[in-house]
Amino acid sequence: MFDRTDPAYSAYIRILEAELIPATGCTEPIAIAYGAAKVRQALGALPERCRVECSGNIIKNVKSVVVPNTGYLRGIEAAAAAGLVAGDPDVQLQVISHVAEKDREAIRAYRDSHPMEVVPYPGDKVFYIAISGWAGTDSARVVIEDFHTNITRIEKNGACLFALEGACGAEEAEEEPEYDLLSVERIIDFADHVDLFDVEVVLDRQIAYNTAISQEGLTHGWGARIGQTLLEAQGNGVRVRAKAAAAAGSDARMSGCEMPVVIVSGSGNQGMTASLPVIEYAKELNVGREKLLRALVVSNLVTIHQKTSIGRLSAFCGAVSAGCGAAAGIAYLHGDGYEVIAHTIVNTLAILSGMVCDGAKPSCAGKIAMAVEAGLMGYEMYTHGKNQFYSGEGIVKKGVDNTIRTVGRMAREGMRDTDREILDIMTESC
Hints:
The strands form 2 sheets. A 6-stranded mixed sheet has the order 3-2-4-5-6-7. The protein has a two-stranded antiparallel ribbon with strand order 1-8. Helices cover 55% and strands 10% of the residues. α1 (7-19) packs across α11 (289-310) and α11 runs antiparallel to α12 (318-333). The protein folds into 2 domains: 24-163, CATH 3.30.1330; 182-427, no CATH class. It has helices at 7-19, 27-43, 56-62, 76-86, 101-113, 184-193, 200-219, 226-234, 238-254, 268-285, 289-310, 318-333, 338-352, 364-383, 400-414, 416-427; strands at residues 22-23, 49-54, 116-120, 128-135, 138-145, 151-156, 159-163, 261-262. With 430 residues, the chain is of the alpha+beta class.
C-alpha cells in the first residue's frame, strides 16, 4: 500500500506536477514562440532577420493550427513572430497569453516585413527546435530539444551563455521524475491512498481551465463544431456529453482560442481528453470532489504511462492514449479496480491503436471523440460479460503493462516511416 515513505509516492507527485501545466495555444507553435522570445531576450533587441530549424513533427503540428493572440495567423513564421515581438519568456508555455491589440498588429507586420527562413532539421531527433536571430553585428541562438520547455543551449555571438551538457560550463538539467516506476496496478493503488493535499492544486486547476475552454467550444462556433454536432445529433446523455466536452475544448483550442488549458504529456488535446470525460461522468454519478480527484489521478497517470513509451511526438495519435486514460478514470468512478481498469485499457488499445497523427488542426476534435468512444466501448466490453481481447490477438500481449509497452514500441519504432510519409503528404502542393 502506498504511503509517503514509498519512493514511488513522491515520484508520482513529481510526475503530475511536471506534466499538468498550463499552456495557451497548441504546444508546438507555443514552443517556437517560447524559443523566439528567449532569442530576443539573449540578443537584447528585436532581430532584423530570423531562422527557424525544426524537426518534422514540429513542422507537422504547427502547419495548420491557429496561433492564439495573433489575429488568427497560422504556421511557424507566425509563431516565431509572436514570440519575438510580444512574448514573455518567463511564463514559458503561456509566453503569448497576454498580447495587447497593438502587438497583434505588430506581429503580423513583423512576419510580413522581416526575412524569416524556415528549414527542416536534418537529424534524427523527433523534437528539435533551433531559432537564430540577427540584429546589426549581433546574433543569438536558442535550441529546444525533447520537450516543449527544455532549452538545451543559448548562444550570443557564437559564445555559449547556457548549456545543459557539453561545453561552456554546462549546467545540470533539473532532476527528471522516475517515469519507469509507473505501472497500472501501482497507479490505482496510488490513487486510492494519495493524500489529496499533495495533488489538489494541479487537479483543481485542470478541472477549472479545461472545463472553461470546453464550455467556450460548446457555446461558440469554433473549428468544425464537433462538440456541438455530437450533442445536436446524438442527444444529451452522459456518453455523448463525455465525448462532446473533450471535442469542444479541442474545437476551440485548435482554432485559436486564447483560453489556457492544462496539458498532459506535452499536449493540451491529451490534457482535455484525459480529464473532461471523467468530469462529465463524475457529475452524472453525483460523486464527491474526493472521488473525482482520485479518478483524475488514474486518468492522467494512465495517459502519461502510455505516452512514456511512445514519446512526446510520433505518428501515433496521442488522443488514443488519453481516451484510454479517461476510460480508466471513468471505471474508477464506478468503483471498479485493477482487473476492470486493466482490461479496459487493453481492449481500448486493441480497438484504436491504428489512428495516426497528421498534425494539429480542427479534425483533432473528431479523433478525440472517437478515442473516448473506444475507451467507453473497451470498458463496457469487460463490464458486460467480461468480454476481452487476448494475448496473441494482433498486438495484444499478456498483461496490461506489456500491451502498453508493445504499443509504445509500435508507435516509437514501427511508425517512423509512416511519420515521414505523413509529413511528405502534408507539405506537398495541393
